[in-house]
Queue: 3 jobs
Job 1
Amino acid sequence: MHQGFDTTFLLLYIGLVFFAAAVAGYWFSNKLHHRNTSQLKKAQKAELTKKRKLALRASHAMLGLAVVLIGINLIQYTSGKYSIEKLNYQAEIQVVNDKDYGGGHSEAPIRYEMKIPTSGTHSPHDLKFGLYKERPPYENLVHNLEHGDIIIYFHPQANPDIVKRIEELTKYRKAGAGILGVPNSDLSQPDQIVMTAWTKTMELPAYDESKAGTFIYQYINQGPEKIPPEVRQGGGTM
């Protein structure tokens, strides 16, 4: 962990050095461009133009390197910050094993046996990961469960601080599976949380970070149809 942090910091430092060098190069090139050349001979003017072009090319190259290095740094930082291993709280959780109603596809509206379905015939179109302001159709949400996604349902009148914490959880990924935070008026109490995976349901009377994290850690990417991460980036690909 410490070595990874050092490497990430080093990439950021080098990227910032290249960025500073690029800025200095652009400044130098601009200074050459506005230099008074009226007293210079033709050969001297040509040499000055050559220097300015070289400074510009070097600045472009250094800026490109800076963008790449800083970009790699951000990717490494994000992937580390939202590592699924951080959710392995090993909390004691009570999970209901729901009946498997199959997983066929249909464009027609579906009448589910369960109030909050965790399997069954569903839409051929899944949804993007992230926090939603309104509940999408269950037909689409069940498709996400089929791909191993986790859905966190919260009451539309839930505490905004809890909603923000749920939104933070939606940034975690494992392989091609992710997390959706969805308001749901089918929940009876403002503090209630319901978490679902394929054929799995966990109800909480109030939000519990350790239990929510443990559920995600245990059941994410456990659906019957797994999609490679390079195909299913961010969900909503099928």
Job 2
Amino acid sequence: MTTVYDFSARRIEGNEQSLADFRDQVLLVVNTASQCSQTPQYAGLQKLYKTYRRQGFSVLGFPCDQFNHQEPGDENEIANFCSTIYHVTFPMFAKIDVNGSRTIPLYNWLKREAGGLLGGRVKWNFTKFLIGRDGAVIARYAPTNTPEKLSDKIEAALALPATSRESND
């Protein structure tokens, strides 16, 4: 069975990172953008990270410019924006495509595992995928599901291995 740990991605600083480095953690994988109506979710994501990281939780942010050109900056600009405006300390990765022919393998897998309302497509910025400690997708959440609404789901995933899936995207 394929898990999130079978993938790697380029960090915003430029180095390739194996997602196996996050083995046994609960992960929230999110495609982000800095000029979107959902951008304030960075604050909620950071709060979740700060609250649960010592229990084995991490947010993985993947900037994406595929939705109305709402992430136009390069990696340095994105990193600066995230750290100075929202004080982001969770891992941020290089700008990616989440749909189309240039979609990174991780997102192709995420979309296969949890299709959402648009089937195999991500519909907008701040779509979230919750991954259990076993590396399997537990759930997919629409951009309108704010980080604050996910605390109980994260707590449940931290307490138990991922065995069920849900989708409300």
Job 3
Amino acid sequence: MTSWNYRIIKKTDPLNNEQVYQVHEVYYSNSGTIECWNDNPVEPMGVNTAGLRNDIQAFLSAFRLPAMHEQTVNGRHTLIEEQLPAKRHDNYSDYQQKTERALGYINQILGNNLILKKDPALRLAFEKVELALHDLKNLAAAEQQALISPIKSNG
């Protein structure tokens, strides 16, 4: 095992037979395939508040990946990623709007800080973040346009 991360796994709650989502540690091989995972869900913790905050941030990163569910394939217990809904152009429009809002927040909160005038290294780092957010917004716009174009040509 070379790496691990937190993943969301959908399971059946044995107490009430309902489907629930829980956070588990998942371990990967060098090739990136899943080798094993904790059977029991984990909870955030830290030896201090900063450590707890970092662990919660790692938990939140699990939402960037598809949820998984346990399944037996060829007699072997494995994790399978849940199928995501089809791409929709309005999802990309919403993402662009949120990226635009994030750009406004980052400029308001960090971009206008006097320290950027005094520290060229921090200013350069901030400008890279700002450009990355613009790139993110532009990629979402391009994906949205690619989804809309076939609709217009078939319409």
